Amino acid sequence: ANERTLSIIKPDAVAGNNIGAIYDRFEKSGLKIVAAKMMQLDDEKAGGFYAEHAERPFYNDLVSFMMSGPVLVSVLEGENAIAKHRDIMGATNPKDAAEGTIRADFASSIDENAVHGSDSAESAAREISYFFSEDEVCARTR
Ligand code: CMP
Fold first, then answer.
1. Angle of helix 81-89 relative to helix 19-28, nearest 10 degrees?
2. In b/e form, how buried is each residue of 100-132, taking b as 16+ CB within 10 angstroms?
3. Cα(66)–Cα(129) distance, rounded to whole angstroms?
4. Rounded distance, CA 89 to CA 83, Å?
5. What's the pLDDT band for 134 if we cut at 50, 70, 90?
6. Does 58 sit in the ligand 1 pocket, CB within 6 Å?
7. What's phi and psi for 84, nearest 5 deg?
8. CB 115 within 8 A of CB 22
9. Where in or outside the cell is it found (predicted)?
């Protein structure tokens, strides 16, 4: 099915000048960028995004890391976009990420793992609307 998913290029990958290399992988995989913005997250915006992890031991470090520099938030669209995006990102922990995946090539640790992607249709809908209004997402007809 045609789907949309939320992508975040995290502060480590932005600082490493890897935005273009990561966008290249999205586009080469057939995913279309239908919305994008660079943002400096604050405590409230980063904390709210990861609210489901609030009780996890890594939550405070995760929120601090996500505020440590700008992020590039995008909506990607395409056939099976949610699973496709997860496949090309690779495992959460770069140590476990398959060769040729974004995290294998650009992430340094489970905490600084270069990218985030929605893990289900429900989280994609929630995460896209967390960052974008409907009119900020552009229809792609070609
Ligand atoms: P992300 O897909 O953005 O979702 C939550 C983030 O928490 C995850 O990527 C990791 O960067 C970070 N994290 C740190 N420790 C863990 C852990 N033990 N399990 C899952 N995620 C973790």
1. 130
2. ebbbbbbbeeeebbbbbbbeeeebbeebbeebb
3. 19
4. 10
5. very high
6. yes
7. -60, -45
8. yes
9. Cytoplasm
Provide ipTM, 2 decimals: 0.97
Q: Going by CA atoms, what residue is nearest to atom 1 of ligand 1?
A: 116
Main-chain phi, psi angles of 92, to 5 degrees? -50, -45
As a whole number of angstroms, the distance between CA 142 and CA 136 comes to: 18
Write out the catalytic residue numbers. 116
Specify the 3-state DSSP secondary structure of 76: strand
pLDDT at 16: 98
| Closest C-alpha to ligand 1, atom 20 | 92
Q: What is the pLDDT of residue 90?
A: 98
User: Tokens at residue 72, please?
Assistant: 């590039």
Nearest CA to ligand 1 atom 12: 111
Taking Cα atoms as reference points, which of 64, 107, 68, 109 lies closest to residue 89? Answer: 107
Q: Mark the binding-site residues, compressed into ranges.
A: 10, 58, 86, 92, 103, 113
What is the structure's pLDDT at 8? Answer: 99
Per-residue model confidence as pLDDT tens digits over 8-20:
999 999 999 999 9
CB of 101 within 6 A of ligand 1: the answer is no
